[in-house]
Specification:
Elements (H helix, E strand, L loop, with lengths): L19 H7 L1 H8 L7 H9 L4 E7 L5 H6 L3 E8 L2 H13 L6 E5 L12 E7 L4 H5 L4 H15 E15 L11 H9 L3 E6 L2 E2 L3 H12 L1 H6 L5 E2 L1 E8 L2
Parallel strand pairs: 1-2, 1-4, 2-3, 4-5
Antiparallel strand pairs: 5-9, 6-9, 7-8
Helix pairs in contact: 2-9
């Protein structure tokens, strides 16, 4: 999940925001530590199981990052074709998949959302987990075109009837959906193109207060880390947008 990857404005966190594009290129292992602490109650895993109730032949994944969603998809498909534009993220993903005994099911390759190195009509389902919304922050004048290019690629690689799933934030540090204001038009854009929203909680739980401060500060900035100082948990609301094929 890189240059059109992990959502840029996951909550109101003050002015000292980390450079997420740099994180994806240079701090993939630390990023993986953070996301490994998310979804303490397994809501995302249950949602994916609901969306892919039986094993399918092929799933395509955009913005695979370090493979957090990939590892949930792999047991539900004969093969997963997973792409990300940041090779360092994919290196961590490969190590994690192999350690979990899932490596043989997953092909990882560098690829941009608008130009996936995948054949036409190959996917029974397509997933993009926290993988498209960065277009809003990085291309403020042209994000709609970037998003539509990604959606066109999703359609191109999909078989007839394939389900498309886009997972994005509805707010970090909030117990009820409170999406970042700049992403509200993006979500409306998805819904105008036939995606229906579900809401789940994917809260973080850290080993201790020190780990929370380290990892939340690393990715979200000091305001959010200070807000939850001394604790172990940070609430997270997540949207799952689904379009039926």
């Amino acid at each position: 999940m890189n240059a059109i990857g992990r959502c840029a404005d996951r909550a109101t966190r003050g002015d000292e925001m980390p450079d997420h594009a740099s994180i994806y290129d240079h701090d993939a292992a630390q990023y993986d530590r953070l996301v490994s602490r998310e979804d303490v109650d397994g809501a995302l895993a249950r949602t994916i199981a609901d969306l892919i109730p039986q094993c399918v032949e092929t799933v395509v994944e955009l913005g695979a990052g370090t493979g957090r969603v990939t590892r949930l998809l792999a047991p539900r498909a004969a093969r997963v074709l997973a792409f990300d534009a940041a090779a360092p993220m994919l290196a961590v993903a490969r190590a994690r998949l192999d350690a979990a005994g899932l490596g043989a099911r997953v092909s990882l390759a560098v690829g941009e959302h608008h130009a996936l190195p995948a054949p036409d009509g190959v996917a029974d389902a397509v997933f993009a987990g926290w993988a498209i919304a960065h277009a809003v922050g990085w291309y403020p004048e042209g994000w709609r075109g970037r998003v539509d290019a990604a959606l066109a690629e999703i359609a191109r690689v999909s078989r007839p009837g394939a389900r498309a799933v886009i997972i994005e934030t509805l707010g970090t540090g909030t117990e009820t959906p409170s999406p970042p204001a700049k992403l509200v038009p993006f979500y409306a854009h998805l819904e105008a193109r036939g995606f229906a929203r579900r809401v789940i909680r994917t809260d973080y739980r850290f080993a201790d207060a020190a780990e929370l401060a380290e990892l939340i500060g690393f990715f979200f900035g000091p305001e959010l880390a200070t807000r939850y100082a001394g604790g172990r948990d940070v609430p997270e609301c997540t949207g799952v947008w689904v379009r039926e094929g």
